[in-house]
Amino acid sequence: MYGADRQSSFLINSAQYGLVRVEAHRQEKSGSVDQKFPFFFQSMLGTPEKHLVIVFDGEGYKKEAYTWLTNKVESVEDKVFKVFRTLDLFLKWITSAERD
């Protein structure tokens, strides 16, 4: 986005998925993280990795914003885009893939 290289929280080299780009955010209290959802979504679409993940932890985002984001990722056809509402759910997903 904005023509700059994309920075994210980290990349995971998964035996099952290859490179997985992960954007992670924790927000315990109400704040502005949900205002950044459109940026997270749009900027990750421009990355070369096929597997994209956004992980949230805490309850500081608006539920309506989370619903908006999950609806947007469902419309993506050329990438595998997942959103996890907790770190634990993400860890279960990524570790189960590595065991298979």
Q: Could you explain the architecture of this structure?
A:
InterPro entries: PDDEXK_11. This is PD-(D/E)XK nuclease domain-containing protein. The protein has about 100 residues and is an alpha/beta fold. It is built from 3 helices and 4 strands; from the N terminus they run ββαβαβα. The N and C termini lie far apart (about 35 Å).
Shape: globular
How much is the radius of gyration in Å?
Answer: 13 Å
First and last CA, distance: 35 Å
Q: Main beta sheet, described?
A: 4 strands, mixed
Number of helices: 3
What fraction of the residues are assigned to beta strands by DSSP? Answer: 25-35%
The overall pLDDT, averaged over residues, is 82
Q: Please provide the count of β strands.
A: 4
Residue share in helices? Answer: 25-40%
Strand arrangement, major sheet? 1-2-3-4
H-E string: EEHEHEH
Number of domains: 1
Which characteristics define this entry?
single chain, 100 residues, alpha/beta, 4-stranded mixed beta sheet, 3 helices, 26% strand
Please outline the helices and strands.
Blueprint: E1 10-14, E2 18-26, H1 37-45, E3 51-57, H2 63-74, E4 80-84, H3 87-99
Parallel strand pairs: 2-3, 3-4
Antiparallel strand pairs: 1-2
